Amino acid sequence: xxxxxxxxxxxxxxxxxxxxxxxxxxxxxxxxxxxxxxxxxxxxxxxxxxxxxxxxxxxxxxxxxxxxxxxxxxxxxxxxxxxxxxxxxxxxxxxxxxxxxxxxxxxxxxxxxxxxxxxxxxx
Length: 123
Hints:
mainly alpha
């Protein structure tokens, strides 16, 4: 993967995924979905860990706490990635518009020179 043209936030997010087990943080899809369901319902509040421990018996309380920390980092990096992509797209669009404007200006200048030459030839 070429990273020189990608925003640094995209690179950081992709690196995080590779290093931490992908979009599920190394957990299987089933356990991760239960984690998300409980987290969203209880907003990671005080009862969250107690409920998660009983609902996800394949993971220890420490695993669940660690997964919560991983998930917070995941969301932060994902949000940064999304914002960087929006910013990158706007910059690319501005470049395209500037190039388009520059071409129009060059065409006008070329047309003006051509008109001047035609006027001189008429004289």
